[in-house]
Amino acid sequence: MAAAAVAEGFWGAVGNTPLIRLAGPSAATGCEILGKAEFMNPGGSVKDRAALGILQDAVMRGQLVPGEPGTVVEGTAGNTGIGLALAANARGWRSVIVVPETQSREKLDFLRMIGADLRLVAPKPLSDPGHYVNASRRIAEEMAAAGERVIWANQFGNLANRQAHRDTTGPEIWEQTGGRIDAFTCSCGTGGTLAGVGLALKAQNPAVRIVLADPAGSGLYSWVKTGEMKAEGSSITEGIGQSSKVPGNLEGAPIDDAVRIEDPEALELCFELLLKEGLSIGGSAALNVAAAIRVAKAMGPGHVIVTILCDGGARYQSKLFNPSFLRERGLPVPVWLA
């Protein structure tokens, strides 16, 4: 998929991100470990693809009309909200974004900066009416009842999310590797990226291994391994993992295996890639790379493993690069900040 010479605004600039060879992880495993640089999307993360796919679907269904009043409502850990708000701005719509107040300050400040109507809620379990997803659905329902043109993006259950990755991310990876890909690793929040890319790659070659990367505190690793959701431990990563329910976008995904990555392992990679390869990535991206290394070592030298570099490290400066925050949790501190 060749990128157009000139992109048409936000909607035309999402996707066609490069694959970056990760020299250190590749040398350590004897494999080619490649990261899809999703932090280069216009909104700064892989979630721009889901946001765009959901809004394109809403337009196709007549739920939103470009240039006419409309509102997009969503509950999010931050990145999907950023993508939705920017994509909505570009079509003349408002955005109401509901986020847990525990998310990084940088993401919250960015949402305010780009004009989203930001609603902060206390962190609650999914079964609680106050959970950010439930709160966002309720807001959308109330607005619709008042006669407003509104959609609830519903990124966890809206299959336009994974379809966006099936249509774009997966085919891009296949083309960029010339079909030479043996495995794909990715963590899951909504499951859209793993499911969509997995479906696209398996359609080209059923032998490509699709491996779910999961942080501590999430039950998806257990779900893949045993069929039951069982969460253990905790993680500082934001926007990935599920403790109680398998997202709709992940149902029926062609997953071959799962690996669990602890925070210290991911953080060491986050710092190493920054210092040695000049790549500033967030915690979920580092976790994805750690999973790719695990898979590469299990498969043996000579294989090609692709993973997702979800977003950049600047979005987590107050956490991942805050020595006090890390020390309080017994986590490694970057040597240049120690």
Automatic annotation (TrEMBL):
UniProt keyword Mitochondrion present: no
GO biological process: cysteine biosynthetic process from serine
Residues of the Tryptophan synthase beta chain-like PALP domain: 12-311
Keyword list, A-Z: Amino-acid biosynthesis, Pyridoxal phosphate, Transferase, Transit peptide
UniProt keyword Transferase, yes or no: yes
Pfam families named among the record's database cross-references: PALP
Listed GO MF terms: transferase activity, transferring alkyl or aryl (other than methyl) groups
SUPFAM superfamilies in UniProt: Tryptophan synthase beta subunit-like PLP-dependent enzymes
InterPro entries per UniProt: Cys_Synth/Cystath_Beta-Synth, P-phosphate_BS, TrpB-like_PALP, TrpB-like_PALP_sf
Cofactor(s), by name: pyridoxal 5'-phosphate
Annotated pathway: Amino-acid biosynthesis
NCBIfam families cross-referenced by the UniProt entry: PRK10717.1
Protein name stated in the entry: Cysteine synthase A
Species assigned in the record: Humitalea rosea
